[in-house]
Amino acid sequence: MRRTVFNEDHEAFRETVRAFIEAEVVPVYDEWFAAGQAPRDFYYKLGELGIFGINVPEEFGGAGLDTHKFEAVLYEETARAGVNFGGSGVHVLLALPYIKMLATDEQKKRYLTKFVTGEEMWALAMTEPGTGSDVAGMKTTAKLSEDGTHYVLNGAKTFITGGVHADRVIVCARTSAPREDDRRFGISLFAVDTKSEGYSIGRKLDKLGLRTSDTAELAFVDVKVPVEDLLGEENKGFYYLGQNLPSERWGIAFGAYAQAKAAIRFAQEYVQDRTVFGKTVASFQNTKFELAACQAEVDAAEAVADRALEALDAGELTAAEAASAKLFCTEVAHRVIDRCLQLHGGYGYMNEYPIARLYADNRVNRIYGGTSEVMKSIIAKSMGL
Fold first, then answer.
1. Is the dihedral of CA 274, 280, 283, 286 positive or negative?
2. Global confidence as pTM
3. Mind listing the pLDDT tens digit for each residue in 320-330?
4. pLDDT tens per residue, range 212-240
5. Is 248 a catalytic residue?
6. Which intervals hold domain Acyl-CoA oxidase/dehydrogenase middle (predicted)?
7. CATH of segment(s) 122-235
């Protein structure tokens, strides 16, 4: 089936990214994997390549485009090579929409020029040790000082992707108590400078997968946040978070589809080279049938991911549609990657093979950005159930 989602510009970008990955990432990726993170200076290279500025207005050094299609190409190319770009995905997919949506002109001038170059890497801190999907239950607080010049931030966050290297973090905190009729009220968003006194990074978390993406615990003890770093209006944070969830969930869906597509590529290459009982593994009927079944599932996931991408770019992707795409694509990826690992036999369990790393990386897709169970609840609600 011919895809219509990408044009010549996207394909030219794909060639550039593929060459960059082969030259700058693949030769050192094992070192990143062993270290548990990409090096900080790698993000400057992404800035030079223009990765961070695609959707940033030209006046701040970006390309001024309004599309997620170049991000989609990135998902496909990193998956194809069996690598990832550390915490940079959070920088672009999660943090940038809040800056564009909420920042004042003065804030955009301060934030975006450094955002584009990678001089300031951004992360998003929602999750707390006691609150995962229940964002409204957060305990971190930000209290306005008596002289009204700053907020005093106290609390803790966990599972913060990009949290080790981040220079600024969008922190969600309570500025008011929840209302009896609305427990979501009272949350605000702050662009916190990670060099602030009282801000500390706890453990770099030891994850099952996504080993090159730094994930941290953060703690705030009387951190002074200037009022100039409040994003949007006080107490409307939950509403703002809801605005960006469809794009976040599309990103997870598209990334999962891309991983499944890559898994088939890895398995095909392996079974054509590997011999058993004097024959290539590819020559057995079971291998052909397994890969054919996987291909059919990936074809369907590609169609779903592409449709969601077009809707997102048109500003029409609903919460339920994003939830449906995430649920479907992540479940497909789970099945396909597992079957492709099986075709590798014992070697599929070895981290030196990309399929093993892909298997571990993929598992979180059904958890973060809202679990599969939460996605089902959103879809069911949209059905009137």
1. negative
2. 0.94
3. 999 999 999 99
4. 999 999 999 999 999 999 999 999 999 99
5. yes
6. 123-223
7. 2.40.110.10
